[in-house]
Protein 1
Amino acid sequence: MKSMRVALTHDEEALSPIHEGICRSPDLEREIILGGQAVDGVETITSFVDGDADAYEPLIDGRESVLEYDVTRTDDGFFLYLRQELGPEGLSLLNALAQETVVVVPPIEVRSDRTIRMTIVGHPAALSSVFEDLSEGVTLDVRWVSDDVTTEPSVSDRQRTALQAAWDVGFYEVPRRNGIEAVADELDCAVSTASELLRRGEATVIGRILDRGP
């Protein structure tokens, strides 16, 4: 089995109406699809949207293809439950992913830079054939391929503890409230050990943000 991280870049004409709205609005950054399913052309998803619900709701409220939705607001965005009939763009992607030995691993990112980014896992031959028949106006960029069945690089428990300690003592504040010595004191370890744990944890987290794989 292999894992593959891909970005599907859409021309403006190839964007779905909702994706186009995310791209055009300065108050919406991305929609992170956490899970869902599609049955007989009807998609049901739950997602988190980085942005203002007041900017997003006009994209779905009253749209004929939208069967049902619910919004739960948070301090930095909102959760969305959505059921909608898929248009040609969604059906094309759904058909491309309908391989017996391929699994799409959430989350799926629908981004304001006109890309959809996802990780898929499966047999190498199946992965290479998934996107052979993309819709017109959609191009594929393979971000990484791994021999491990993995989705995103993750920090170890010790690295997570170090990152949390650094956050708690103000190491990441601007200006910095405490230095690496305070982190080492919090972890009860040598300064060199604390520094290495932070560097490794930061490299993993930054690599995830920049979409670099294992």
Protein 2
Amino acid sequence: MIIIDAGHGGNDPGAVANGVKEKDWTMEVALHQYEFLKSLGIPCAITRRTDIDLSSEKRSSLVKGSGASICLSNHYNAGGGSGAEVIHSIYAKSDLAGSIAESLKKAGMGVRRVFSRVGADRKDYYYMHRLTGDVETVIIEYGFLDSSSDVNKLKARSYRLQLAEEAVLAAVRYLKGAPQSLYYVQAGAYKEKVNADQLCQKLKKNGYDAFVKKV
């Protein structure tokens, strides 16, 4: 199971730059990831569906109690810099974070670094690592809102959602122990949804894990 986290929310806008509030874009990609996982038949959950406040205790409690193996915590950066950052716990290997970073890079987003951070108490600096128990939580910063090169890419909603899907697919491969690449078979494409639904039902009756996706 994978739980999706939309960083910030409510009175906490997160990073703000170039007319964008981080909390809005994290909500957008989190909801897309959640629906995307459902379409793939992967058990999933989400920390918030609307623009609400979540304290660190509430957010981490939702993740810890979800029964998930992986948490993807979605964010956007600011403060000088460029490129995506993927952050893992000091107690976790970098395999999942590295796989997500590689997927983002292949999709055209530069990667600044993959790292973990130690706090003054020698524990994880970020509470999403420190307080989420056995759930392997990865914080994904998809780029810098105050970087012109990043924002020129991220201003396209389709690109933001593409990066979100790449992160999810990397997590699914990691969860299933699959190689870096997954291959999809398309059985048909139709202008009318009813025709797509009919083929989908036929495939399911024959034992195939089929689903309809609008593109």
Protein 3
Amino acid sequence: MTTHFSKMMFTEFRPIGAQIRQSTSADVLSDILLPEVNLAVWQRQLDKELLSCARQLAARPAFALQRQTHLDDLPALLINALPELPGSDGLRKDIMLQAEMLACLMDTDYLGIRLKTLHQAMCPRFHTDHVALRMLVTYAGPATEWREGPDEADVTGALQLGDTAVLKGSAWPDAAAVWHRSPPGLSVRLLLTLDPL
């Protein structure tokens, strides 16, 4: 299994909140293992052909892939699930990269994957997830919004298209889960969610 970070190391980062870290280096994702960090974001620019493929996929009214799988079985699953479009190979490879990084980070070979087109806000209210850790990537449309706590007065931020984010949920031991929501409105999106199992 190859990843962008084969050894875990803590990276240079630009703090944007007491428990948020982001960087243009994939190594920032390992910072989620620090007790004080509850959101780590790898800021990325995606290939234009991949983005075009994602927009075409998002325009389909009922595309959804939701499965629990072993990492070794994911390539075949993606080949069967994703239609052949210009850029679909790049999208498959990028999803595999995200899955490999999360599997490495959490030392697991089993993941829950959800790749889904959304035509309205799936979770319009700020909430926390009832999982230990979750990875999110928005491939088309506006990305997930977050804030530092449940209080309406807390500063709100937003992920960007293509960002890879790992966020702690309420099942992570002794951690404050990240409050987040789908962007409001009826924007078309293609969202990848990965959960370690």
Protein 4
Amino acid sequence: MIRYQEIAHSLELGLAAGGDDSRAIPSEHELCERYGASRTTIRAALKQLQDQGLIERRQGKGTFYRPRHITKHLGSIVDFHSEARMAGRVPKTRVLALATREATPAEFTLFGADIARDGIVDLLRLRSLDDQPAVLQRSRLGAGVLGSVKPDELMDASLYRYLAKCRGIHVATVEETLEPLAAESEDAGHLGIPSGTAIFRSQRIARDAVGGVIELSDNLIRGDIYRFTIRRQVGSVTP
């Protein structure tokens, strides 16, 4: 293995061991001293990591580690765009479909008659990271809850922030179920992956402070971009 490749491999292992947070890496001068290598060799190693998409140079800020995965905490209500930016990614949201229809009997039960009688909105959005499709999200909300929103108002925006700011509706709790799934042809096309690729499916129920259902969502998530964690608080053990 050529020297710059050895250094690139060492850096990759060290960065991965530090977790999935985006963070600054040492300067070229520091790396030269650490590895006892010339600046030319260090630059070649960094270029290899950059070509692999593992680091990125930010104008006026330095060079940063770009994790292969975004770590998402189950049950978190941090919105997609904030979560992506914390990971050093550039998020985008496109509205693929927005339509209102009559509620089904099951939806009358889930949402309640007061909401369901005005109809249900089906919202289909594609969320991307650095222009790479990452999440295909199907949401259902009461037409009276969402209001007469236009697709452009939900482009590159958080649905929950829109509801809070424009409708005075606040999400208080989120229940989420995660399962593996093989992507079907149409969904795979949206996500830019081959049909049959293993993905995550997240089914989520968002409720207000009194337990009323605000949104039901079915999210198809690329497993090569996301991974999931659970945090538990462990109490003190009495001997």
